[in-house]
Amino acid sequence: METWMIFAMLIAPLIGGFVSYFGKQVSISSIGVFASLIIALFFTFSGNDIQGSIEWLPGYKLNYLVDQTSLILIALVSLISMLVHIFSLEYMSEEHGKRRYFLKLGFFTFSMIGLLLADHLILFFIFWELVGLASYLLIGFWYQKQGIPSAARLAFMVNRVADAALLAGILLLDQSSLNISLMDGNWLMLPSILIAIGAFGKSAQLPFSGWLTKAMVGPTPVSALIHAATMVAAGVYLLFRVSPFMHPDALMIVALIGTLTAFYGGICALMQHDIKKVLAYSTISQLGYMVMGVGVGAQSASLFHLFTHAFFKAGLFLGAGAIIHFMQHATKEDPQDIRNMGGLRNQLPWTYKTFLVCSLALAGVPLFSGFMSKEGIIIAGWEWASSIGRWAYVVPDLALITAFLTALYVGRMVLLVFWGENRIQNLYSSFKEVAVVRTPLIILAIGSIWIFYNWNPLAHTSWIHASIGLMPSHTDDFISMIVTFLSLLMAIAGLVLAFSFFKPGSNYNRSYAELQSDNKKILFNGFFITTFYEFFGKGVLRLASFTFKVDRRVVDGAIHLIGVGGVVFSKIVALIDRFIIDGPINLVGVISRLIGKALAGLSSRDIQTQLTWLLVGIILILSWILFF
Amino acid sequence: MQNTLTYIFLLPILIAFVMLFVPAERRSVFRRLSLATVSIQLLLSILLLINFDKSLVTDSWSGAFQFVEKADWIFMSLGSIGSIRIDYFLGVDGISLPLVALSTFVLLIGVVSSWNIQEKAKGYFILYLVLSSSIIGCFIALDFFLFYLCFEFMLLPMFFLIGIWGGERRSYASIKFFLYTLFGSLFILVVMIGLYLSVVDGDANTFSLVQMLDGNYTSGSVLDPESPQLIFGYSARALAFIFLIIGFGIKLPAVPVHTWLPDAHVEAPTPISVVLAGLLLKVGAYGLLRIAYGIFPDAAMEYATLVAIIGVLSILYGGLNALAQRDLKRMVAYSSVSHMGFVLVGLASLTAIGFSGALFHMISHGLISPALFLIAGVIYDRTGNRTMENFSGLASKMPVYTFFTAIFFFAGLGLPGLSGFVGELMVLMGAFGSSEFSLWIGILATLGIAVSAAYFLWTIQRMFYGKYFVREASWEVNMVDITIREKLMLIPLTILVILLGIFPRLILDYSNESINFFLQQVSNLMP
């Protein structure tokens, strides 16, 4: 029974997608996701772990495991997926291929739930690839538009390279125990690093982060679901599951990469003027926090941040979607450019309110969820650093600086988008915040308020920690006090600075001129990471055309050489045959012909000559008889 | 079930003989007869699949084969030298049966794909049926001589099918194909004679593969594993193994003896490409598995690293070459080279999972590559052109075609849920788990999955995404989505590729016992 329910939970979104595809009624697809949500919630409250296995290859079983962690995340994924489905009903209503769109969304949700159910690493990898496919298909949804096909391909390729590392890492482990829940002991360095690389790819950590910003060309609800809330967090989830077995040195690398990525995302987000790019870099930055959290040993804090981030970032992306649609219907200018916005709080009141709540959560302001979860990670980072040594403080320090940067770019974004006056004259749009647009935004905003997680707004634990049974072990209250204070300070400082720059009435053009000056270009382009990919790709192509040349000239050339050699040799043999072997034979023939000709001449003369020769002949024969 | 194998094997020859007496003007008779013949073959092979005892456990090769048929065939007394005895000896085990089933299926697809052949239809279908017999014969022959006969006989119809019904450079391609493979066969012939002189059945020398697999050598003979003779300082067994690697490696094809394949594929008509990629390459792989690895496991162990390196080279080099192609069909041809590299790596690992993976990959590639060639054929039929730059945005014009293309491209790049992934995964598991060679082989082979993604996705981007565009205005009228006949071929392939991707045990349950026994024998024969 339970097995069937789990199977139903997995397959329901896919069925929903198919029914809506063939039934031509796209709203059905959200019912499938809703079914998954209900089943996940049912299991969450029933409370016991369920384990099972599938004999996939003869004698090779793939285990799945339903525990509290996976259930909480499945509930999260199906909830956000459902909200995105609902939001998309309006957002995609004018699209030609919307049935295809909802089928792909259903396929994504199916794969994501499968990924969360997997306990065996191979089963995990199977769904890991499938979510990558869903991401590729959804990024490429508008495949006819310029630049979109290459963005989709870039996303898939970057992930594929990381996945190859992940697969190699999995296969380097002890093959008899690939079930995560049954693992023990420590892995070697190489598999740990390779598996971490796999996670970096999916979670857009340095140096793989470039695909995520490119992925923003996809439909905005997709960005909310896949490229902010769920799929990109899969890497964090993987690290969460396997970090107890990873090599300590590999974990340290994970912590450092996470920290660097958090900082990188924060500082790049500051320079963007495409609202989706701001959010994308912000996602990279927040994922960096989560990865860092796992690296410093605070898995539960990372998972908590994953959870809260899913809500507020999905809320921000959907809000951005509403804004973009509004702008699309209002102006011919770039609808995603925040320089064209301004004063939108009058036109989009609901979007404004929910966007503000989610922004404050992202900026790490108390009373909102982001503050609590981020704080937990930074505290853990600080404690980790104090146990390792001086240099390790770079991790919590950069994390705090990133908190400041976060508040700064969030403040800038909100001020530029919603405050002040409309920067485009006569702004009128047919877009309305109808119920299917409003409801998801409100639910996601509510999910970003502190009370949803813990009664104490300054706490950094929640019911999530309790239910997965991983409470952070704090030894030092002093550290947590300091961190709470510092991160509060950073958030306020960031917001104040943002206000002083971008307050209504300030000269935006001047502020931009400062931010957009030449030496900031590098930040605007995210340190040219995608240029580096292109460079790498070109290198591979050059290598490919080189090997093809080798194939034509050298490999095939050698064969041709053998062929030509064979022909030449046989020609020589033929010559020998003709002149040396056949020559003497022909010579005999020629000679006999000459003789024959000469003799034949005898018979063609006149009768007198013939008689003469006859006489000569007779004389000769007679003399031979007589004298010998 | 008696004589079913003979029916599958000889029915096409019989029908081909009957066709000789049908006037050439009655074109549609030939294709209908061929369709009926191949359908009967498919039905018979399904019967075999149903009646096959999957759980048969055996302790020697002589008990390992099912549906065995044996009859005296050729017997020649050579006076004081002895006698030559060749049997008509057929049988299948869990390794060859899936390949027989695959063959009948792909041959059926090939007939459907040949439906539009008008020119010299009589000759075409007669040759096709002869080809069909010889391919099946390779998989079911248990007598080396019979195997070799079928192996060689495949060349003849193939030569004419490419040389007469092919593209522009058809005569170049067909001669290249013929000479190349003939050259390879000579190596196999040498080994066959060596084995005949070394292996006995009772007290007479024999061509029986079963006896060869069981290792009934006369002591002191050329290939006797106890005291192998040295030839130029090398053990005769090692040389025999290398000869077989060359001989079957050309057929497979393995880098660097692969260059006949792109030319043959590009010039061959679509149905012949389908059969060539789907089945002929598998014959090479099957020969390696059954003969090279079955009979010479000691040498295989010694040269495991060499074979694995050839395999990895094929994977990466073939993949890079595929990336450099502008002709869709040539790209698919090079992707075949890349995929068959996985088979080599799986075999070289000498592990049960690697062997199963190699077999599974053969089956899976036997479904994917025919589909890929059909896909290339679709565009060629419509425009007479296959150059990638000449097309763009086909997804909006031909959505169904694009759907099938995407399925098989993703199957080709090893997406989980489709059959390509299973084979690659198992081969890689074997490679990483093998004690025969270094881990780097496995890691490099894993890189292959990134390379295959590169060329397939780039092709999708160039041809299917973007704004719709075709180079010549005259092609425009022909650019219609795929026809019912094309769907009839692609849908069954799609279903099988998905089914095998999700339930690989559909194949592996057949082969599991056989492969376990195989490896047990291998480990027994190892010194």
Model description:
The complex is a heterodimer of chains A (628) and B (527). Chain A is mainly alpha-helical and 628 residues long. Helices cover 73% and strands 2% of the residues of chain A. Chain A has 24 helices and two strands. Chain A has a two-stranded antiparallel sheet with strand order 1-2. In chain A, a hairpin with a 2-residue loop joins strand 1 and strand 2. In chain A, helix 3 (68-91) packs antiparallel against helix 18 and helix 16 crosses helix 20 (477-502). Chain B is mainly α and 527 residues long. Chain B has a domain at 303-527. Chain B is 69% helix and 6% strand. Chain B has 21 helices and eight strands. Chain B has helices spanning 4-19, 27-51, 96-113, 121-140, 144-153, 155-165, 170-198, 209-214, 236-251, 260-267, 270-295, 297-302, 304-323, 328-349, 352-383, 394-397, 399-412, 419-433, 439-464, 484-502, 505-525; strands at 66-77, 83-92, 200-201, 204-205, 230-231, 234-235, 391-392, 469-470. In chain B, the strands form four sheets. In chain B, strands 1-2 form a two-stranded antiparallel sheet. In chain B, strands 3-4 form a two-stranded antiparallel ribbon. Chains A and B meet through strand 1, helix 5, helix 6 and helix 23 of A and helix 7, helix 13, helix 18, helix 19 and helix 21 of B.
Tell me the layout of helices and strands.
The complex is a heterodimer of chains A (628) and B (527).
Chain A: H1 2-23, H2 29-46, E1 50-57, E2 60-66, H3 68-91, H4 98-117, H5 121-139, H6 148-172, H7 189-202, H8 210-214, H9 220-229, H10 234-242, H11 248-269, H12 275-295, H13 299-330, H14 344-347, H15 349-363, H16 369-388, H17 394-418, H18 435-446, H19 463-468, H20 477-502, H21 508-515, H22 521-524, H23 529-603, H24 607-627
Antiparallel strand pairs in A: 1-2
Helix pairs in contact in A: 1-2, 1-4, 2-3, 2-4, 3-4, 3-9, 3-13, 3-18, 4-5, 5-6, 6-7, 7-10, 7-11, 9-13, 10-12, 10-13, 11-12, 11-17, 12-13, 12-16, 12-17, 13-15, 13-16, 13-18, 15-17, 15-18, 16-17, 16-20, 17-20
Chain B: H1 4-19, H2 27-51, E1 66-77, E2 83-92, H3 96-113, H4 121-140, H5 144-153, H6 155-165, H7 170-198, E3 200-201, E4 204-205, H8 209-214, E5 230-231, E6 234-235, H9 236-251, H10 260-267, H11 270-295, H12 297-302, H13 304-323, H14 328-349, H15 352-383, E7 391-392, H16 394-397, H17 399-412, H18 419-433, H19 439-464, E8 469-470, H20 484-502, H21 505-525
